[in-house]
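Form 7-S
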Amino acid sequence: MVTAKAGSAVLLNHKCWHGNFPNVGDRYREMLAIAYRPGWAGPVEEKIAAWNPDDVEKLPSAVRPFFIDRNTRKWGSRGETNRPMASDAPGISPGRWDKP
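Output:
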């Protein structure tokens, strides 16, 4: 059991088997789950709402470029992305599918 005081945070890998004990208090428990998904992969859903332009305008200018169209996908039909990949990685190189 991992115990934590009110207001504390517990960080764990979501792939780790986990659970929780019964809530015996009189308030709801809350959780914030954050997962990383590379920008080039696009959303999991078919189409999601655009960022609110007024909210984006309030962001620092250095941060705004990261708030492009949320439905952007930069990959090809063979799984290639906009990131350069090593060509000398046997077993994981995309070129492995081209070999007889």
